[in-house]
Structures are given as structure tokens and as C-alpha cells.
Fold these 2 entries.
Entry 1:
Amino acid sequence: MHIAICIKQVPDIAAVRIDRERMTVVREGVQNIINPSDYQALSLAMALKSKIGGTVTVITMGPPQSEEALREALAAGADRGILLTDHAFAGADTLATSHVLSKAISRLDPAPSIIFCGNNTIDSDTGHVGPQVAEELGIAQVCGILDVQAESEQTLLAKRMGERYIETIRVGCPVLFTVRKEGGTAILPGLGSLQRAFSAGSIISWDKEELGLSDDETGLAGSATRVWRLRATPLKIKGDIITGQAQELVQAILRKLESMSLVDEDQRHE
Amino acid sequence: MNRGSCLVWVFGDYGDYFQNRVTLQLIAKGKSLAAELDTRLGVVVLGEDIGQYVMEYAAHGADVIYAADHHALKDYDVELFTAVVASWVGIYRPEIFLAGATVFGREFFPRLAKRLQTGLSADCVALEIDKESGAFVQTTPAFGGDLLADVITPQHRPQMATVHPGTFRELSHDPFAIAELIYPPVPELPPRKIEVIRRRQERAHKASLKDAKVVIVGGKGMGSKANFEKLFQLAEILDGEVGATRPAVDAGWIGEERLLGQTGKSVRPRLLITIGTSGALQYTSGIQGSETVIAVNRDPSAPIFSVADLGIVGDADRIVSLLIEELNRRL
């Protein structure tokens, strides 16, 4: 069984600050990490591999430094990494990103039976790439899964959160799953995988030519959407803001609750 | 109005009662966009025995309803729905196409956009037609909600967007409203590859949080799990429910099922008291339907005060404790 995983290296968004005066994103001292739900996808893939065997290929598209994310995935037990990097890939929306990833996946031999993606990234948070890769490859998709088990040689049982239900889904291969961040367990690297992570040849790099892509299919040129402008979330004041002693503040809340008839007026003070 | 054209579409997601509401909210917004573009608002609805939804959408303002009533479409399926809706887009060529960012909407719309080779923006918090350029501007939170990105789709059509439930307000129900009902041809359907073999209902309080008239939300500023748990006392006295922001969930003070905001639930209570929450847009997008908001935060410059009707600058735990004491005294 060949399993492929798409991951993305993202800035640790909790540490990113916005300079509201200059309208810039302050990235200084911010670490890059594997996107959390992608990491969880990696964890499910490794669990599946340990039960049914096979090989795990990790794919990422990004600047050359994204190789770090691949090394981390190799350390966690993946067998090989593929880095998709080219200046022409920059500025891609999900339409163009899913195209490059799909092209790379369709070059894998043997074709993967299972593809994992994270459910959403913490930096752009669209959740589009997984379903769009499934569409381009023409395979089934199951989004937002919490867990997956092999049922037979060709079928899998996945558990996912529906709108109000936890659903168990049966699906055959080939299939693409997107994985939610929750409920995951950390992967402890073994010695063998640590060695592989830093050995030569375990990561290969493909660019635009290698993938047979033209300029108008990738990056900004291959994107349908444009970010027209970025602006700070408005800080307009809607109501009253009051300061004072805690006791006075609580009285102000109570008056509001009284005015909404949510509590009775205080008899003792009348 | 251009009677012939119907170029703003909404996907009719009736998956459950709450999803149904997001469709109604989008009909209201889509109708105002359609008016600006001098066209009509259409709703696409697929399923079996969908008469009740057709009536509901008409009563809430749909001008045209494109329907498929077909046994094979009885249950939601991304690939089947993509096949049908993509063929209809090919026939009618809408300019704008909206869907709720529900579990199904998030899975279906990206696949549909890819098949149509067009752009899609996710989880929009505002949609408008730019007066100067005429562009359809889709506003989506960026960088964890500290920034807003205005996204446009210059060339590709339709311009697609998903919208968080609770962002817009539905129109009132008009039982005498009339809509045009069209049954476009259903193309040959692909095989169903996915089988739901079991559904387990989540704990009942999930629904009650969405329905609650009073919601008390705690954030990281509650300081500890023990402090956070006092919010349940407060909620009980006010006959409300407890919600939480992402940092409080991540701190392990409360389960994911109570998470509000972009990656959680949206609520529209009469009163929402938000305590120790900074007010990141990822959270506030889930509470913007609240009628009245009281915010408690130690930092007077916290963005949460921009959405509050009453802002209290003070220590979260101290205020909560005193408020519980005072309310208990009055009981």
C-alpha cells in the first residue's frame, strides 16, 4: 500500500503579531512548523502503515526552506520526501496549489491508494486544497476525519464529525482524506527514521519543468483569486466601556441584565 | 430588474435545521447583491421530496429555485452533487455562487470550484459589490483574524464564496411569496463511492448551545480551569449555556464541542457575556449575531470591546465571582 501525504510549512501563527500602525505582519522570531492538522494526518498515516505495511511519501510545495518540514516528517517515520519548489509556484491560491500537488501525485509510481491532507492550515485556513486535489485526481474524498482503520484490503473505515453526528464511513481506494487536528497523538521518532531524515537521497526536489507545467498554470498566474487589499480588523467602539471598582462594574452588568428582564430588580435596594 | 437573468446563486443546504438557516441568511444577502447587479437570486436544491425546502426558500425571498428531485440524490454526496450542480452552472452561467460554510459546504464547494476551474474564498465575513470598480469583494479573515483580506475573482466565473453561518440575517417569512421553479436536466450520475454506515448523535448540549438565549463565553483571560468552571454556575443562574474561545479549548479547560467562532459554532443569543476573551475575529465571527454583548477584559484596548454593547474593564475572575455572589443573593 502506497500512502501519500501533503503537508505545508507554516509560521506558528500564535506567535505572529500585527503592527497596526504600519499595517505589517511581524514575523521576527516566529518559528516555522508543520501545519498542525497536517502533522495529525502524518500521525494517522504512520498508524495505518504500522498495521497494514507499505510506504509513505510526504509531499510539500513551498520555498526551499520547506525541506525542514520534510525532514521532520521523515524523522516521524515517512519513507521519502518530495519538495515542490519553484519561483513560479509563489503566490498561488488553492486552485493553482492543488494543481501542482495533483501533478506531483500523479507522477508517483505506484499511484498512492490513500492520500492524506490536513483539514485546514493555520495561516490561510481555507480547507480547499484537499478536496481540490481529490477532484483533479478524480478520486473520492472524505473530509474532516478523526481516525481511519483498514477494514479489508481495499476498503477503509473512517470516523468523522458531521454537523451533529459522529459518522462512520466506508470508502474504497483510491481515496483522499483530510484530517482534523484534534485527538492526535505525538509521533516519537525512532532511531532508524532519524537516520533516514538526515541521509542524502531521501528527499527529492521537483520544479516546474520536472512536473511539465507551464507558466500560466502555477503561482499567481494560475490563480483565479487575487487579494485586493489587506486591512486591519476595525477597532470601532460600539457601546460604553466602563472602568472602576469591581463592585461598581458588577452593578453595571446587573443593570444591563435588569433592562433586558433577565433578572428581577433588586428589591432590597429599592 | 432584468426579468430574464438570474445570476446570483445560493446553494440550498438543508442538511439540518441549522444549516437550513444559513441558506436563508444567504438568500437575504444574495438578494441584495442581485438587486445591485440588476438580476435575480436563485437557489439550487438537490434531494428527494424537497418540496418543503422549495416552499421555505420561496417564502424567504428566492426569486428562482433550481431543483432536482431524484432518489439517487436522497443523501448528500460530494461527487454526485458536484456532477449535477456543475452541469447546471454550465447551462445558466451564474456570476456569483454562495454556500454556507457548513460541514458539507466546506467539502462540496472546493470540489465544485475546482471542476469549474474558478476561484473560491473561504469563510467570508462580508460580501459587497465595490461601488467604483463593480468588483464582487469577498472579505475573509487572515493571519488568525488580525487582518481582513478583501479577495476578488477578476476573470473566472462564477465568483464563489462560502460564508460562516450567522453572518447575515434572514428575511422574514412571507407565505404569499412567489418564486419561479425550474427542474433543469439531471446529468448522468457517477457511482456513489462513500457509504455512511453509522451515525452517532453527539451530546445533546451541542444543539442547546446554538439555541441558548444566554451564552457565557470564557477565554484565556479566565486564568485557570477552576476559574473557567465558575462560568457554568453563572450560566445556570441565567439559564444559559457556556461557550469558549480557541485558547481556552487549547488550554484544556473545556472540550472542543463548546468552541465558538470560525472553526467552531456560531451563536445568536439575546445576551452574550464574553469574559477574558481578546476578541480575535476568528472568534467574533461566531458571535456577531448576538443581540446584546457584554464584554469583560482587563485590557481597555482589547478588540472585543469593539463588538460590545457594554464593556467592563476589570479582572475576569473577580467580576465573575462577584456577579455570581450578587445574583445568588437576589434569588
Note: Chain A has a mean pLDDT of 89.
Entry 2:
Amino acid sequence: METNLSDTRPETKTVGESWVTTTFEALEDWSQRHSFWPFPFGTACCAIEFMSTVSAHYDVARFGSEVVRFSPRQSDVLLVAGTINDKMGPVLKRIYDQMANPKWVISMGACACSGGFYRSYHVMQGIDEIIPVDIYVPGCPPTPEGLIYGILQLKERVVRDRRRHNEQRQNKQEKLAPLENKESERADVGRAVPA
Amino acid sequence: MPTLAEPSLLEGLIGDIGAKFPAGSITVQENSDQPTWVVKREVLVDVAKELRDRRDTRFDLLLDVAGVDYPERTEEEGGRFDVVYHLYSVTRNDRLRLKVPVSEADALLPSVIPVWKGANWFEREVYDMFGVKFSGHPNLSRILCHEAFQGHPLRKDYDPARRWILTEADIYKPHFDLPDGEDDLFERMAINIGPSHPAMHGTFRLMAVLDGEAIIASDVEIGYLHRCFEKMAETHNWQQIIPYTDRLNYCSAFINNVAYCKTVEKLLGVEAPPRAVWARTILTEFSRIMDHCVCNGATLVDAGALTNFWYLFQPREEIYGLIESCCGARLTVSYGRIGGLAQDLPTDFVARSRKLLETIPKFIDDCESLINKNRIWIDRTVGVAAISGEEAINWGWTGPCLRASGVGLDLRRAKPYDLYDTVDFEVPVLTGGDVYDRFRIRMMEIRESLKIIRQLLDRGMPEGPYIIQDPHIALPPKEACYNQMEAMIYHFKLIMDGIQVPPGEVYEAVEGANGEFGFYCISDGSSKPYRLKCRPPCFPIFSTFSRLINGGSVSDAIVSLGGLNIIAGELER
């Protein structure tokens, strides 16, 4: 506990044997970066490699990111694994909007990062067209090692510049938003009403 | 020169069937790889019925419907589009291709859904991609592209990169086939599952009308992973398409490589050397094992049996090791090449494969001992989403799902390719047609695949080149490129211009992990395909999904999706 906390923030100090003084931000960083709850937005080939990463051989639990949650309300990392096309775009945006702050996005694989080699009429040329991305993991698909490296990079990022990053995110979100995102228009989505 | 079809029984029949229709309704197209009839649209449905029901034809399986666009063709020559139907007779093991020309001004065909139910989604796809309409179709709407899409992307005049943005206001409205008298939805509840839902594997959307827990009507929407494979194929040269084929059925990428390479080899009239064929057969079977592991693992996760998922993913990791040693990639291998393989097999290939033969059965046994007599599993799967063999054929099913319904159709046996006629293996057949049997049949097939691999390993690796020694098709070795002028020129020509494939059309299929996986390919003699249509085994199977789950409960629907092994990359291409 001591070393973990003190390597994150210089203001953390150990007093005596059983007391630690620190700031609330440092405590939050420390707890958050060691337990990501990813939402796997898996659509294609990358999702299979994500499954490999989670399963016994690579075991992403070693890095504190194995609590996979399929509810955006219960997760803090959106892990986009696979091609996102124009039909899926509004769904992804909606999932992202539903996640509570603070939240991060890992874009796994060439398709999510840039559309990959699908420069075509139905494929989004990178998910950063509609949502901000924190970590881009290249590869088609990335190896599990690559994805784990991406997760470790995200940990660093959480610690390093969280507050600045949140400010940037606010600005970024205002600039990006090609899709209509008003509550009133979204009310009928996700419910199947017979025509 | 492409290989031509052998004379078929059908040649005698054309006069017999043709006599029933006005003169000129059916003509035979010569110089094709398989019997091809050009049929006028007025008689299409009647000809289709005749072909399905006659005892000497029995074309009971509609494999594929493909559109082809010829913008230059005039009205006298038939009009702008061809709609191509590929038929297969399960009982007679025979194939037939029907071509129906249709003009742009009057792009309307009669729907063949009354003859083959599996035509439903195929016709929607042709409508979506080419704008050809089908009269009598119950729900002729876009299927792969989104609702706000304008134009028809596989027409030759459509710009491959022209995108349309979908807003949430435009999304798909479900089409429910409610039973009679059930149009009052006051007491009913309509639910939506997916596309971003773990039970829908991330890319499918199920909409259902419930009466209590029971589903009384449902609709399925796909297209959330449509990434334009066929348009991309028309804009890349023959070799560049191989990586795209990897990403069709990405659980068993190598099988796709083989299917595509065999199609182009058939057009070129060449064959891969023995060493490549041997390796292709072995790696195909390893890929099949991997695919079945994912399918069964995912089914069990959907049913809540997570432990088995760990057991079934471990053999995949072991096989990845072998594949990585061959080509450097794990999942999307791109190891096949037209005329052979991308590079030679590693020296320890046989030893590594033998080691796998020892380790894999352990995981399969562990999983089966947990599941086969498990009360919960049996209660949830026996009799769930059952379908008879006859009905499954009418819907266009092939592969393990069809074999679980009592029809022993397997291309490795029906039309042996590569080395399958030289090895001894069983084609497992079960009769339940439910989720339970679909699970079991995959486990049985894994054991058969291991048997095939063992026999081939015992035979030893054939000596000789791993790719065809023709500088017009395969790149010369690297050393030669750097040291010999001629080799360097060939290398340059192949990289810059690609392979020159003679004009022609072929259909070639292999037994993929989900069923008949084929390519229908038209070449106009240039360095790119004129049209490349993939025959995806998932597509007709998933079009049956509503029929399978109606009447069952929601939890039945969840558990039955996994057993069908729907891979979105291949379903939507």
C-alpha cells in the first residue's frame, strides 16, 4: 500500500507505522488505475483476440482489468474491439454517453482506430469521428500482448494527467459530435415498437 | 483456361423441362464451369418449382443468390443486371446455376420464397446492393446497409468510399409476422435485445413480441458489421483480396484463404503443389477445431457455463502457436496464396502438430465430461430450437447445423477436394436438430478432424515446392529477385499489375466450419475480379432464427443463438 500510493503522488506521506496522509485525488487515482471495469464493445475479429486476452492463457486479471461488464453504467473503460460501421455508430455513441464519468476509451485494432483497410461506403474511418479515444492499440487484430500493453498505458495515463485530460475531453466533445444527440430524438431508440 | 464442367445428366433434361414453357424461355449457356441455364423472369418461379420437385432434378437447396451489374449491356442483350441463383441437390449431389437477366428500367423479379424459404434474405441483399426488386417478398427492405443509405453500393457506378451518415431517427423498424388475430398488442410486450448485448454477440439485434415469457413473433436485424467485402474485392487485385477473406469467418481464417485461392486457381486452371495441398488440408482441420471451440465455448457462456469457456479456449491458444510458427499471425493468417502458400512450413511443423494431437483431446474430454450429462444443460437445450432436416434444407442450411438435423451433407465427402478422398474419417450425423445435438456434433467433428490430421502426419510432409513454380502467378524467391534480372522483372510485374486471370466465371466451395463456404467469381480478364460473391453459410442459417425461436421463451432464444455459430464477419461481409 505504501509504495503503491507514494509512487503515484508526491504528496503521499507515511506517518508512523499505521498512518498515511494523502490527497483525495491520489487515493482515487490509485484505486481507479488498479481496477478497470471494461465494457467490451466487441464486434469483429478483435473481439476474438479480446476473448483470448481474458481467458486462461493471457489472463488479464493479472492487470486488474478482468471484471468485464456489459452495462455501460457499471464500467469505466469502453474497449472498442472491432470494426464500427455507420450503422453501429449511433449505438456506440449512445453507449459512450451512458457511461458515467470518469471514463476512458481504448480503441483496439486498425478498424476502430482508422477504419483499417476498409476504406469503404459503410465503415466509419475511426471511432474518433464520434467519440474521444484515449489509447489506440494498433494491429489487425492486435496480439493479446498488444492489448495488455494498451491497458498498462492507460493506467499510466490515468495517473499522469487525469484532470487535464478531463478538461480536454470537455472541449473535444463540444467539437466532435457529428451525430444528433438530443434526448427528445433518442427517446424511441432501443425499444421495439411494432410498425 | 478455366476448367469446364463435365457433361451432366441435366443436358438431357433441358429439352424435357424446356418443352413445358414457351420457346426461348430457357437457354443453356455454354463454356461454363457448371451447368448454367439462362431463364426468362416470367417463368422463373415455375422453373424453380419444377427443378425442386422433379425426381430426376431435386434441386432442394438454394445455395446463393448473387446480383451482377453490367452497365454496358443493352436491353436487347438482356438488360443491365443478372441475378444468379446457385442450386444444389442434396439427394443427387448435383449443381445448377440459373441466370435471370433483368433491365434497369424494369428491375423486378418474382420472389422464389414460395419455392425456397432461404431466398428471403438473399433477395433482400440483392435489393440492397443492386436495387433489383422482388415482387411478392414479405419484407423487401435494406438488410446490410443502414436505413439512411442512398443508392445501391455494388452497382459499378457507385463510388466505393461514398458514405452516408445514419441518425437515430432513421433506424430499422421491426417487421413482425404476427399470428392471426394477434394484432392487438395491448396485452403484449415488445422487447429489444442488442446489438450491443452480450447474448447477441455484439452485432445482432433481436426484436420480439412477448406473451408473458413466450415469444410470439420476432424479427432480426443485421448489418452492424457490414464492411463491404465484395466492393473492396472489386477495387483490389487478386492477391490483395486474401487478407480481406481472412476477416470473413475470422474464427477459422485459413479455411477462407483456401476457398478463395481454390476459386482463383480454378479460373486460372492451375493446381497447388502436393506440399501445399497437404499443409492446406491439415491447417484447414486445425482451423475447424478452433472454430468449433469458439462456437461451443460461446454457446456455453451464453448458457452460464463459464468454466467450459476456459477449457475450450486453451486448445485455440495451442493451435495459435502452430499457426504463428507458420506465418507469424495468430488469428487473421493470410497464409494461403494463389497457387500454394505464402511461405514454407517450419521445420518442426510435424513435431508441433503431433504435440497438439496429444494435448487437444484432454480439453475436449474435460468439457464433455462437464456438459454431456449435465442436468441444467440438458434441460435447457434438448428440443430447443429444433428443426427437421427437410425444413433446414429448404431454408438453405449446410454444415454441422444441418448434420445435427439428420442430413449427412459434407462437401469433404460429397465433392472431395484436396486430400479428403485419401483419408479415412466419419461424417457424424445426429437426428435431434436441436441445440443439444448441434453442440454434440461439433465435439464429434473435432475428434474426426484430429483423426484426419493424424493420418496426414503419418504420411509425412511431401517434398517439393510450397507454391506453384509459375512466375506469372507466384512471386519468385527473394534471393532470385535481388540477383537475377528476370526474376526482378517478374516480381515487379506481379506487384504492380497483379495476376492476369483469364475471363470466365466459376463457383468453388469448400466445407467451411459452418457449412458450404464458396465464392462465385466473374473475371473479365483484368487484374481485379469483376464480381466476387461470397456464399456465406451463416447467412441462410441466421435468416431462420425467427422461425427457430418463435414459440419458445426468451432464454431459449439466447441459448440457441450460440449453437448456430453465427460469425458476423461472414454473415454480413
Note: The radius of gyration of chain A is 18 Å.
